[in-house]
Design brief:
The protein has 187 residues and is α/β, with parallel strands linked by helices. It has one domain: Rossmann fold. It has 3 helices and 11 strands. A 6-stranded mixed sheet has the order 6-5-4-7-8-9, sandwiched between helices. Strands 1-2-3-11-10 form a 5-stranded antiparallel sheet. It is globular and about 50 Å long. The two termini are 23 Å apart. The model has no long low-confidence stretch (mean pLDDT 93). Bound molecules: inosinic acid (IMP) and magnesium ion (MG).
């Protein structure tokens, strides 16, 4: 059980070891920073926060509580992988229900890695004619970015190429409930 395996700031899961990388306290600070930027840029507006499930759930709930402006919330579930293979396209496995026409949309994402997910999802959202469209991502891996238009407008923190779990990030759907973010120990 992954939650029984937290020892000396490390977590083990199926033979892999993950070391604490971003503490819960630092995450809270990153979220505050993003919220302040959004609050400043959207003063007097009422943005729609589109939470990309499930990874961004924790970020969304903390971010919205840190936002001192009117906003609404909706969700979408995106899938770019089938099993372990990228299909090269992104489908809405749980579609966006809200009407976003003429709305100021902020997509709330956990991490932008290659950018393929955000590249396709932004194209898809633009067809629904929002007034504006931006992306807030807790983390990004700039060294891995393959789609320039997927670069997030708001980022909590950039990280090098690492596989992370916790605070929404999963391994085989587990570990999302760990309060800190842990990175896979290499070698
Ligand atoms: P991209 O489409 O390559 O940018 O990948 C984005 C998606 O892959 C994210 O929304 C995450 O769900 C997942 N992902 C990327 N890196 C990690 C990681 O280090 N840990 C867990 N999930 C990740
Ligand atoms: Mg995701």
């Amino acid at each position: 059980m992954i939650n029984d395996q937290i020892v000396n700031n490390s977590v083990s899961y199926e033979g892999m070891i993950f070391d604490e990388y971003i503490s819960a306290q630092e995450i809270a600070q990153l979220v505050q920073n993003v919220a302040q930027q959004i609050a400043r840029d959207y003063a007097g507006k009422q943005p729609v926060l589109v939470c990309v499930l499930h990874g961004a759930m924790l970020f969304l709930t903390d971010l919205m509580r840190a936002l001192p402006i009117d906003c609404t919330v909706t969700t979408v579930r995106l899938q770019s992988y089938e099993g372990t293979n990228s299909t090269g396209r992104v489908t809405e496995s749980v579609p966006l229900q809200a009407d976003i026409r003429d709305k100021d949309v902020i997509v709330v994402e956990d991490i932008v890695d290659s950018g393929i997910t955000m590249h396709y999802f932004k194209q898809n959202l633009r067809e629904r004619q929002p007034r504006s469209l931006k992306v807030a991502s807790l983390l990004s891996k700039p060294s891995e970015l393959q789609f320039e238009d997927a670069k997030p407008d708001y980022v909590g923190r950039e990280i090098p190429k690492k596989f992370v779990i916790g605070y929404g990030f999963d391994i085989n759907e587990f570990a999302r409930n760990l309060p800190s973010i842990y990175a896979l120990r290499e070698g």
